[in-house]
Amino acid sequence: MESTESAASPPGEAAPAAPAERHAGWNELFFDLVVVAGAGQLAHLLHDGPHLADLALYGVLYLAFWTTWAGFAVYGDIAASAARVRTLLIAMFGMAVMAASVHTVLTSHAVAFVAAYVALRWQAGRVWRRGSIVVDWPLAQFGSGAVPWLVSLFVETPLRYWLWALGIVLDIVTLLVSTRDRTLRRAGERAARRRGRHPPPGPAHSPVAEPPRIGESRIDAAHMGERLGLYVIIVLGEGVIQIIDAASTRDDWDRPLAATGLGAFGLLAAICTLSLLYGTNGIPHLRRDTLAPRLAMLLHAVLTGFLVALATALGSAITHVDDVLPRGQHWLLCGAMAGYFAAGLVAALPLANRSDRVWLLGWGLPCVAVSVALAPLGTRLPAWATIWILVGLVCWQIAYDPGPPGTPPSGRRVRGIGRRARAV
Fold first, then answer.
1. Cα–Cα dist 305/188, whole Å
2. How far is C-alpha 370 from the geometric centre of its chain's CA atoms?
3. CA 269, CA 278: separation in Å to the nearest integer?
4. Does residue 410 register a pLDDT over 80?
5. ω before 50 within 30° of 0 (cis)?
6. Angle made by CA atoms 312, 315, 321, in degrees to the nearest 5
7. d(Cα 337, Cα 316) in Å, to the nearest integer?
8. For residue range 238-265, what is the model confidence (pLDDT) as tens digits?
């Protein structure tokens, strides 16, 4: 057994205490309340149908809302106790305006949504002092994704919606291609150009030009992971709200309602277990330091977008408990779960070497395939039957533990759900 004292400590002196683990503060938790409202309003976009246009609009608006939240969540994470309460309250109010505008974003409130979004993106970049580069969140420096949204204020539909989509695409590309070295290099080039346009006062010919000073700001992975996990819980809470709201409007509480409601709650509980106890950042199967923070956060955005869509479908299942689900809502239910399983598979693949990836695909792809096949083949199933099939798929992924990275596939085995869960 290793000594409890540090080897580098002088005899008779105790080892330095480990830094205390940081948790989300009250200001951050209060700020996250706006996600409750935003998720609920965005879920309403999928109640009617949904048609392909509804899904596209939901995807664009959800990613805009999530990106805004993420920008200020990163600010609170890095600034810690120095984060200004006023900044978070302004962001919260702006996001509340965005959420309130969703219901009529295609008609009267499009300008309000876009104006609030562009203003918050500008504010999220302005909070960082000059020379401080957030290498883990490139959107703090590159706000080009907000430019098409700003231009959309001066054009008519349908070009306006294409500009919104272009802005989201630019943000996604920025997160995918911006590495630490590239971000710092571009920041240094911009600082050098500014220095050339506005030289410091002094002798006209200085023998040695002092290079611009660029400081790095990094995310606290543990603290940010807690914020992302709390976000997943909030989104799952929207599913609970949808279920309760739909059940409260029914006069007859019969066995089909009990089977559907129990299955819906069980599905949300199983997803919570898989995402938070068997994953990191609320992403199932993701382990620490396997993805760059910017990529893990992008995957989180996609996964939670599917979970908000799932909440809408579960509410519809309770509403139509005496009949089969409408085709659009049935496809939404199965498609949301297929997307959730696919996100977990993407998170798991970096854990393993080439031989293990074959096993992971064999373990994860069936859940994606069954969810996709259930969409066209299960349209005549009662809602409770479809939901319980999906519950079984999630429980399969919980029970079948892939083991630590590098473990041969033959060494893995089915383990009970009651085993010691991984830390979030």
1. 35
2. 24
3. 13
4. no
5. yes
6. 135
7. 15
8. 999 999 999 998 878 888 899 999 999 9
CA dist 129 and 132 (Å) reads 6
Q: Where are the alpha helices (H) located in 198-248, listed in sequence order?
A: 221-248
CA distances from 31 to 72, 141, 221, 239, 384 (A): 9, 23, 19, 20, 36
Q: Say if residue 204's pLDDT is above 90.
A: no
Could you give the CA distance from residue 326 to residue 344 in angstroms, rounded to a whole number? 28
Q: Sorting pLDDT into bands at 50, 70 and 90, what band is 15?
A: very low
Contacts of 371 (CB under 8 A, 6+ apart): 334, 335, 337, 338, 341, 390, 393
What pLDDT digit, counting tens, does each position of 380-408 carry? 899 999 999 999 999 988 887 544 434 44
Residue 289: other Cβ atoms inside 10 A: 10
**DSSP annotation of 410:** G
Helices (H), 102-158: 110-126, 147-152
Q: State the DSSP code for 134.
A: E
Q: Hey, is 114 helix, strand or coil?
A: helix
